[in-house]
Write a structure and sequence with these properties.
Layout: E1 2-5, E2 10-14, H1 20-32, E3 35-40, H2 46-57, E4 61-64, E5 68-73, E6 82-84, H3 89-99, E7 106-109, H4 120-125, E8 132-136, E9 139-145, E10 153-156, H5 162-171, E11 180-185, H6 190-202, E12 206-210, E13 214-219, E14 226-229, H7 234-247, E15 248-252, E16 278-280, H8 288-296, E17 301-305, H9 317-328, E18 332-335, E19 338-342, E20 350-353, H10 358-368, E21 375-378, H11 390-396, E22 401-404
Parallel strand pairs: 2-15, 3-14, 6-7, 10-11, 16-17, 20-21
Antiparallel strand pairs: 1-21, 1-22, 3-5, 4-5, 7-9, 8-9, 11-13, 12-13, 17-19, 18-19
């Protein structure tokens, strides 16, 4: 699909989609919970659908209702020996470790760019916990055969906090007879680990940490009935914050201002004054594409740090962001793990390739609002991964948005 966005002012109200980061974690915990979980305001993105499909493959029963999902589980009881994670990196990293709790071999696979994302962690760590692991040269498909035995361990957290989240979930499955510790070196995206702990706590588990370096599992998930509301997605919200700053006034509803979601951090720098900024995005790399657009329209020179986190995403985002900035006519440099971006008054009319990356597609659409002419986005259907209603919401705010289906 091709999206053609015309420049113009926007105004109105928008409700971002439910947090897919929270939704996938809740699905994982609901699978491990021996009881019934009612998920209110569930997500409907491709990644959310993948998580619901996975937990059914691993034994849960799912009933989808008007604005809720009912998940019933008696624990991990796989009905197949292969689970498909679609293109969701989070689901792959959560559910591979969870699948390793089972004594029979289970293969985890996926599609698209997920097959090229590194998964060496499993072969390095899970054998220490009694799990047999094979992979495709450190990539999916990965086959695990447990049962995983939870015990004290030290892991490298520099690649992604998602691996830690998978371990925390798995460690909270069986009753905890004594404190189990996970030592983590160089943890990145710490707020996402906090989100995992917050979800586990809603299922009765108790997980403590010291400065995100030492995590301790004190109490497992407690069987029973749980009702959880999925809060709005701050990653999606960042698009509307920047759109409001550069092209109008958008009122955003249903936000949890106390959320631990990582991308909430950009509210510290985005404003209608469009003041140049310096921001370390190491813990919230998903915000970098839209932050780059905001920086490209700020008054002065901005610095976005932590771009080493961009390589293993849906695209190599260092490259796809660079290409997007070039097409839009924004001067920039990459130096010392940072984007140095010089703001301009108006972006160029151009065609931008999304590289099948949802965050690039949305960032390009926001940039179009303050361009000198139309901006065409190729493979714009990438937004379905996290925000299927993105273009309809953009149109509802007054933007001229033409979608061409091939």
């Amino acid at each position: 699909m091709q999206a053609i966005i015309s420049p113009g002012r926007i105004s109105g109200n928008v409700t971002p989609p439910p947090s897919k980061s929270m939704m996938q974690r809740v699905c994982a915990a609901a699978l491990l919970n021996r009881g019934k979980t009612i998920v209110v305001n569930p997500g409907t993105s491709n990644d959310d659908k993948a998580a619901l499909n996975i937990i059914q493959q691993l034994g849960a029963k799912v009933v989808i209702k008007d604005n809720s999902v009912e998940i019933s589980s008696d624990g991990l009881k796989p009905i197949t020996n292969t689970i498909d994670c679609g293109e969701s990196g989070l689901s792959a990293r959560l559910f591979t470790t969870i699948a390793a709790l089972h004594e029979k071999p289970i293969t985890i696979t996926g599609h698209g760019s997920l097959l090229h994302r590194p998964m060496e962690f499993f072969e390095k760590v899970l054998p220490q916990l009694g799990v047999a692991v094979t992979s495709n040269n450190g990539h999916l498909p990965v086959t695990v055969k447990g049962p995983l035995i939870a015990k004290d361990i030290t892991i490298d957290g520099s690649a992604s906090s998602q691996y830690l989240s998978g371990l925390l979930m798995a460690y909270c499955y069986h009753p905890v007879e004594q404190l189990i510790r996970i030592h983590v070196d160089e943890l990145k995206s710490k707020p996402y680990a906090d989100l995992t702990i917050e979800v586990l706590q809603q299922f009765g588990a108790v997980v403590l940490h010291q400065d995100h370096k030492l995590f301790a599992i004190k109490k497992a998930i407690q069987p029973g009935n749980v009702t959880i509301n999925i809060e709005a997605d701050w990653s999606a919200t960042t698009n509307w914050l920047v759109a409001s700053a550069i092209a109008g006034v958008v009122t955003i509803h249903n936000l949890n201002l106390d959320s631990v979601q990582a991308d909430k951090a950009i509210i510290r720098v985005v404003s209608t004054e469009k003041t140049a900024f310096e921001f370390d995005a190491t813990d919230c790399p998903d915000a970098i594409p839209i932050l780059a657009i905001y920086a490209g329209n700020c008054n002065g020179d901005s610095v976005i740090k932590g771009i080493h986190r961009l390589v293993n995403k849906e695209s190599n985002r260092s490259e796809s962001i660079s290409k997007m900035l070039e097409q839009l006519g924004v001067p920039y440099q990459i130096k010392d793990d940072a984007f140095y971006i010089k703001g301009i008054e108006q972006f160029k009319s151009c065609t931008i390739e999304s590289y099948n990356d949802h965050r690039i597609a949305m960032a390009a659409a926001v940039a179009a609002l303050n361009a000198g002419g139309d901006v065409t986005i190729n493979n714009a259907e990438a937004v379905n991964k996290s925000y299927p209603d993105f273009f309809s919401h953009l149109s509802s705010l007054g933007a001229k948005c033409i979608l061409k289906h091939e």
